[in-house]
Amino acid sequence: MWRYSSEPVHLFILDCRSLIPIVIWLGHMREWTFILAVISILIFGCMAWFGLTLPVAYRMARVLFAGSRRPRLPAWKKRRFA
Q1: Rounded CA gap, 46 and 57, in Å?
Q2: Structural domain of 70
Q3: pLDDT per residue over 8-31, tens digit each?
Q4: Domain-located, residue 30
Q5: What's the whole-model pTM score?
């Protein structure tokens, strides 16, 4: 009964977190917000096809922009003259 409770909720193939643009469109019903919502859902659908979830895609984009090197200490905690 509780076996799959930690997995994300899916609506058909899409992760339900990717349907947030539809909720935004329901709040502001214009043609351009509908087109934006459909495009973003298509992008999220392609990500789901490749096996990426939204948190994983966010982490990959963060590594792409910030780099893969993670320093041991933050810059403000490093001792300069030791």
Answers
A1: 12
A2: 10-77
A3: 788 887 778 888 899 999 999 999
A4: yes
A5: 0.65
